[in-house]
Sequence to fold (187 residues):
Amino acid sequence: MAHRICPWWAGYLLASPLRRWMGQDPVEILGPYVHEGMTILEPGPGMGFFTLPLARLAGKSGRVIAVDLQPKMIEGLKRRAAKAHLLDRIDARVTSADTMALDDLAGQVDFTLAFAMVHEFPDPARFFVEAARASKVGARLLLAEPRGHVNEEKFGTELKDAAAAQFELTQRLSIRRSQAALLTRIS
Fold:
């Protein structure tokens, strides 16, 4: 099957505040894991539905590295971040489908949010290797995939890929319309 990604124009829909009322409130989902001063990686941020709350939770001393292969998503994210006075906390990067290009972050990331995007990555195993390389030992990764795109078997394969990259399953999470798990970087 050909590799598919969410079209850039869908970013406007995904950034809608209606999403909070439909059971995906970023602060409720991320609040227990993200704190002031953290370095956060968010691959596939779209136009920033989670990015802006992540930047608020990380505070002035934290930062969010948002990487997306679609320039229009990153442009939309930057516009929204500037309007919210959060652009100084967000490092928004355009990457390629082959790599997230995170070499400059080796061992620096405290938390990664992989929300509804690993199934779009051409090689999920490579995604987890790159995320692990960027993460500190003990860093957490919240993996959530939409049930409509990722069944239990495919999610299980993603968890195995994560384990091979040194992420240990800490807890299965309950996020509406999602398969979700919290993982911890073990070595």
Observations:
- Strands lie at 39-43, 63-68, 90-94, 109-115, 135-146, 167-173, 178-185.
- The chain has one domain: 25-185.
